[in-house]
Amino acid sequence: MNNFQFYNPVHIEFGKGQISKLSKLVPANAKILMTYGGGSIKRNGVYDQVKEALSGHTLIEFSGIEPNPKYETLMKAVEIIRNEKIDFLLAVGGGSVIDGTKFISAAVNYEGDPWQILAHRDVSGIKDPLPIGAVLTLPATGSEMNGNSVVTKAETKEKLAFGTPAVMPKFSILDPEVIYSLPKKQISNGIIDAFIHVLEQYLTYPVNSPIQDRFAESILATLVEEGPKVYAEPTNYDAAANFMWAATMALNGLIGVGVPQDWSTHMIGHELTAFHGIDHGRTLAIVLPGVMRVKQENKREKLLQYGERIWNITEGTFEERLELIIAKTEAFFHSLETPTRLSDYEVPASTIDKICDRFEQRRITAFGEQGDTDIQQLRMILEDRL
Amino acid sequence: MNNFQFYNPVHIEFGKGQISKLSKLVPANAKILMTYGGGSIKRNGVYDQVKEALSGHTLIEFSGIEPNPKYETLMKAVEIIRNEKIDFLLAVGGGSVIDGTKFISAAVNYEGDPWQILAHRDVSGIKDPLPIGAVLTLPATGSEMNGNSVVTKAETKEKLAFGTPAVMPKFSILDPEVIYSLPKKQISNGIIDAFIHVLEQYLTYPVNSPIQDRFAESILATLVEEGPKVYAEPTNYDAAANFMWAATMALNGLIGVGVPQDWSTHMIGHELTAFHGIDHGRTLAIVLPGVMRVKQENKREKLLQYGERIWNITEGTFEERLELIIAKTEAFFHSLETPTRLSDYEVPASTIDKICDRFEQRRITAFGEQGDTDIQQLRMILEDRL
User: Fold this and answer.
1) CA B178, CA B46: separation in Å to the nearest integer?
2) Which residue of A has its CA nearest to B212?
């Protein structure tokens, strides 16, 4: 395996009834900005639990962080923080709220235009980020236990990412019961998002890393087993808990240490969200099979390993096995009522040109784990998905 | 699964040549006490690498920390720290050196007799523990990424443990090349120690925790595959690296979250070390088969799961399978030239009485994951191993 660093100081509180621990986790005397989304936390009782746990604390609310959180929205929170002398951020939501709160944390004391954090991934310019705590309401992105953030500029339809340990939450509360009231589509999106997070760190080429490989396969197998259970019955506590913990493990850095990674499916998927507003998890389900097919030579050994260990595909020529692997993977997404073709989402072929143009404009013309995916192959990946 | 907390802020630097990073990891202007053991680090070059990386820092050496570090020795270091105003501890060694350094860290500013930290597991009395960094020279105990410590009082032959996040290393450097020059016996001990750390967190009863179970099996399978390779050829970098990472993952808290644990094999093994000076890893290899046999009813489902997933034992009555599982496990230890019976180490039957007496004196009369292992069963476990 390759040399690596690992550092993940996020304190996790996992289980039923753990939101009440907020009172001990938030620093005494903190002036808190509580960030959240569209109000689902008011319907599922999480809002009340948070407010009860923090009664006695000074708490200001900032709601309205969108799915695919918008730079423009987040900058309004930055303004409030500067005016109100906020010193602690409590993100109550899914990946979008936590990602957005990380950007808020980073932007508050950034010298210059905070858009540079995203446009130029300028994390070295982040000064004194505000500490963050999180109450996760939607397992999917792993944002509760990492330093990654993805933000969209509405004005230009750009969806960009940054990452730094400086914005990792100090703590995250993971209560699986939040899943009970989630819309089905959010559950399927979360399962698929976590599944593909694992594959982006696994489906590359072998570097003799059995711990990382077996851990990755552990998460994939758990999502294949538990995903359909929690999708069918969101109040199944055990299935909800196993899905929630799997999603956190999928992107907390652990399975990615010392191994090559390929974030192509995410990069391409982000553009489908930016141009057409398709849910993040669904964009990944669309793009992944194309990446598997077009990058089959680079990924040959790990594709076979994935097929054997997750789908029990052990016979046939490579071509036969590859098609079976893709079919099984798509069938898994379909079992979660998630279509996997651009036409299913009424995306026209002309979007392919737009995405290729955008990659060229940003000079992302050689990506993937080997750095050899070019615009021609990007086009092939997307044409495969029409 | 059960509710849990997880918090592991240890910064890991893993790989070839990483010891040179010490200069960036140790705080500038720190006055360092470098703790180590009997001098093997002078023969394998680690001592020189550490000194070179820290040239320019104020560094005092404290050598002579024994395998099964002695309270009496460690208290000498505490005296030096108080006199010399040391403010950073750098442990360079295996589990014994790191464990010992954790106790030193905890004892320095403890009010009262530091033996209470061990005798009464008084971690709440630990004030301002000194920060610790570690350079691991022997993969085995996982001490490099946890807050656990085991210390022996020579005077009374008591081997006792304490644990708290307050003494987790700030960083640990894991360079697999340190394995190249290890005595074979230390490698086999390390493999077995890590293997049984996993089993203590796994071989209990099911609580529907597929992530924890699959991760545990990942580590077991990796040790079974990579252990004999690194034992046969310690300079095989990949095997050394995989063994090293497996041993760290075996006891950094991750696989033990939300599941029952049973530290019986360790508790009993510690007495064999205390009375007869048998290496820690070897005591575990002796005791484990007895625990499996005597506690077979409590552990029935997980024993079968372990047999199926690690040893591919899928047929026969439970009794037949159990004996095959124990035989395979012992054969693995034997393949590492580690005998598994008390008689192999010339331990007389009279030691069984002594151990039973000691458990009674300490009122450890109901232990194991169900709290139902009593002195009678303790005796049966040990008699099984004669």
Assistant:
1) 8
2) A218
